[in-house]
């Protein structure tokens, strides 16, 4: 996942608690299962032994294991982006996707709060290639962030609209600034009776606009590559936006209701169709614990 924008309203007593729009960018040759309710085989393939997979809704990376974004019936949430530092990448580093799946499946040896879990992750964060990790528990009204390439400890996220790409939280890369502002505008115009439609959030993220050269970051890759990766929706011959996810959590009569939509390039048999046009949707109520 390489671009995430989200709006967080932890004090909401009615209406929308959490709104997210995210693009997963990946090499086209890397196989993955799209969004689905996990089985025991998914947890085993994700190296998340000891946890429960039956309540996890997520995609799954079939190469390294783990996942990039997911949620559970119990109200847990997690999302990951890579931190772009090409000269620091190690081929022997452990896969980052299991940092997401271990939280979602509730592995028995981890802390049971988002902040506590990220504190544990931070103790061994230097073993991994660069990442941003957002961990949440909607029932606790807690959302936390950690980046293993920032000189910052894990932190609880304040109310508001935020964005993460392949640098630290809210780094003002052009596509992040643009999509964060667009999300904030949509959320501001929504009401409890008429929240932002998920299809509108997906369409918002399918934006191929390239940033002007003067606004591009310098991350250690070629100028041509910086240009291509400056789009919210990336399209190159070997790498691109493989899927878009929209997510909304609503407070209604004291209960939490979740709606998720994924538009991906995978028809479920790992046949790649560019650009993606396979839609998967899910709705559920967060179960009381």
Describe this structure in words.
The protein has a single domain (3-285), classed as Penicillin V Acylase, Chain A, CATH 3.60.60.10. 19% of the residues lie in helices and 33% in strands. The chain has helices at residues 40-45, 97-105, 114-123, 174-188, 198-205, 223-229; strands at 3-8, 15-27, 32-37, 56-61, 69-72, 76-82, 131-137, 142-147, 155-156, 160-164, 239-252, 255-264, 278-285. It has a seven-stranded antiparallel β-sheet with strand order 3-4-5-6-7-8-9, with helices on one face. A six-stranded antiparallel β-sheet has the order 10-1-2-11-12-13, with helices on one face. Strand 5 (69-72) and strand 6 (76-82) form a beta hairpin. InterPro entries: TANGO2. It holds the Pfam family TANGO2. This is NRDE family protein.
């Amino acid at each position: 996942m390489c671009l995430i924008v989200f709006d967080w309203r932890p004090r909401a007593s009615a209406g929308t608690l959490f709104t997210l729009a995210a693009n997963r960018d990946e090499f086209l040759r890397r196989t993955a299962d799209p969004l689905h309710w996990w089985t025991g085989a998914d947890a085993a393939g994700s190296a998340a032994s000891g946890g429960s997979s039956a309540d996890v809704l997520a995609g799954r990376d079939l190469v390294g294991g783990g996942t990039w974004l997911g949620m559970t019936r119990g109200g847990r949430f997690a999302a990951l982006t890579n931190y772009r530092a090409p000269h620091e990448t190690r081929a022997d580093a452990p896969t980052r996707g299991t940092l997401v799946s271990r939280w979602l499946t509730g592995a028995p040896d981890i802390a049971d709060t988002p902040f506590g879990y990220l504190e544990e992750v931070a103790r061994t964060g230097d073993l991994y290639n660069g990442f941003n990790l957002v961990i949440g528990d909607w029932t606790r009204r807690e959302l936390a962030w950690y980046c293993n390439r920032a000189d910052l400890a894990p932190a609880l996220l304040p109310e508001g609209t935020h964005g993460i790409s392949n640098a630290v939280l809210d780094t003002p890369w052009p596509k992040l600034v643009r999509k964060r502002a667009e999300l904030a505008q949509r959320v501001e115009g929504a009401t409890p009776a008429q929240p932002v439609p998920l299809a509108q959030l997906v369409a918002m993220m399918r934006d191929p606009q390239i940033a002007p050269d003067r606004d591009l970051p310098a991350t250690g890759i070629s100028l041509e590559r910086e240009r291509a990766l400056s789009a919210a929706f990336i399209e190159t011959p070997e790498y691109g936006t493989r899927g878009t996810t929209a997510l909304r959590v609503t407070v209604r009569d004291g209960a939490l209701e979740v709606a998720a939509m994924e538009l991906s390039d995978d028809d479920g048999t790992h046949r790649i169709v560019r650009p993606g046009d396979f839609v998967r949707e899910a709705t559920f109520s967060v179960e009381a614990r």
